[in-house]
Design the sequence.
């Protein structure tokens, strides 16, 4: 392999004692080992910090930062400010990598110097790290529209995506007002600068359990409405019909979330109305909210 360029891995950790050691091990055992691991303890109330201090003693590539609780975006921003890598990636404290994740992604960078972001196919795991028959595809995101249309197979999670530091600096910091939609907001900005190349290979394991932030539908609602408003204000949705289509897709997702999981049919109906108002031709999606 050619001379390796440093990769910075940032892991925000809040009350992550149950999973953090397993997550860290999938980073330290990467076949591409030219990396630094910055773990930000976000004011955990369990023994996460104690575990991190012990892990730090086992590998000089680990740096542990401790701060009062202020959210995942502040934690990522702090880690980013300390990063020395040519590449950077952000892994959640309960998710896992295949051991060849970094090597396979960086091979894409090495073969195409114009690439600034790569993401991999993901498989869902449960709280016991058991693989589930559910996958998140990774189709190449060619423009910001692919991100805003929220099309199946075009949603890049933070943990399965690696970026050049160059494009991350241009995209800017994570928005601390956001939690569940922070990933999408960041990728709206990334995809406005560069395509995000998809790797059709399972290299990332996304853990789904009761503590996932996405289980809070009210927060999801507030966050994603803000992301789309920011995109509109930034001039990324100037095309009238495209804007209508993107907002309609968002409203259908919110309608389904409230109808199925939020036990709030009234809010579900509100977003169905808004979705149809923006795109009447999307009426066939009514079947998906029942």
Sequence:
């Amino acid at each position: 392999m050619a001379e390796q360029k440093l990769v910075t891995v940032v892991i925000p950790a809040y009350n992550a004692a149950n999973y953090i050691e397993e997550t860290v091990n999938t980073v330290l055992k990467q076949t591409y080992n030219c990396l630094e691991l910055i773990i930000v303890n976000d004011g955990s109330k369990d023994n996460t910090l104690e575990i991190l201090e012990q892990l730090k003693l086992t590998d000089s590539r680990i740096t542990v930062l401790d701060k009062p609780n202020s959210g995942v975006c502040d934690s990522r921003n702090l880690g980013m400010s300390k990063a020395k890598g040519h590449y950077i990636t952000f892994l959640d404290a309960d998710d896992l990598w295949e051991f060849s994740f970094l090597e396979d992604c960086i091979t894409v960078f090495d073969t195409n110097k114009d690439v600034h972001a790569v993401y991999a196919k993901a498989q869902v795991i449960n709280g016991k790290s058991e693989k589930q028959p559910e996958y998140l595809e990774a189709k190449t995101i060619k423009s910001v529209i692919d991100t805003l249309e929220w099309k199946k197979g075009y949603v890049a999670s933070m943990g399965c995506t690696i970026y050049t530091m160059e494009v991350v600096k241009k995209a800017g910091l994570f928005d601390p007002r956001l939690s569940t939609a922070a990933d999408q907001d960041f990728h709206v900005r990334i995809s406005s600068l560069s395509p995000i190349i998809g790797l059709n290979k399972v290299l990332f394991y996304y853990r789904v359990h009761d503590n996932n932030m996405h289980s809070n539908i009210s927060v999801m609602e507030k966050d994603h409405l803000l992301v789309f408003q920011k995109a509109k204000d930034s001039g990324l949705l100037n095309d009238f019909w495209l804007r209508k289509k993107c907002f309609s897709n968002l409203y259908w997702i919110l309608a389904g979330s409230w109808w199925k999981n939020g036990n709030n049919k009234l809010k579900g109906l509100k977003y169905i109305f808004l979705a149809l108002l923006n795109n009447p031709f999307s009426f066939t999606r009514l079947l998906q909210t029942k």
